[in-house]
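quick one before i forget lol
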Amino acid sequence: MPETEYRKGIILALCAYTLWGIAPLYFKLLTQVSAVEILLHRIIWSFVFVTILIYFWGGFGRLRLLLKHPKQIGVLCVTSILIAGNWLLFIWAVNNGHMLDASLGYYINPLFNVLLGMVFLGERLRKLQWFAVALAATGVLLQLISYGSIPLVSIGLAVSFGFYALLRKKVNVDAKTGLLMETSLLLPIALLYMAFFLDTPSANMLNNDLQLNLLLMAAGVVTTVPLLCFAGAAIRIPLTILGFFQYIGPSIMFLMAIFVFNEAFDMEKGITFIFIWLALMAFSSDMLLHRRRQKRLKAHG
């Protein structure tokens, strides 16, 4: 791959994970709106924004091809539910003082992905990977034994996004087409819920001020832009390199939670985070070593 394309991939990866990391700042502007209502707007305006993008830059042909494969659409029905649940839990966590838990969830996610690869894709875990998973499990177990609590928000985010990524990998649909199909499947539910069941002061956009409506509509951009940056990065740089960037998002969230929003970072959370960070160090070391071994084999092959 040309050096310019590789650099473009690095920039896109940085953009994607930085945007995901600062996304809580956007949701904090909507604390007066319920998590469910923000989710509905996220679905509706993501659908609108992706449709506009595909109209101007092409992609309806891929959508027509997808419609000829009912099995793939069936899997995307499941992924749409998983991503909606993930979005809802994330929005609730951010706007209810649980940003540290959200950060922990996305730190746990790559380790959970390794386990999913072993169980569902027949991938074998290397020794350092086993060690990383064991460290992460120890951190969660210590919190359960010592403090009698389970980081449910963190586990919920890691599990929902892990299974989402696994199923999307099996479907093998590009980011734009996949998101358009997922949001179109959720769109009727979102519109019906908003029309008949949502009873909040901001439910009727005609009664809102312009600033609030623009913020709600921006949910489509906040959702879609980092996803498209990620998709662009994934085709330009190796997944092993891309894997290192995934710690940017939760690290930004972690720092914002403590230094901007003053969330309590007590001993309970501290111990769990330390074990997760140690696990991620082991996991990253394994990725580096494995990549070096592969390079050596290619050089001698």
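fyi The CA atoms of residues 236 and 300 lie 25 Å apart.
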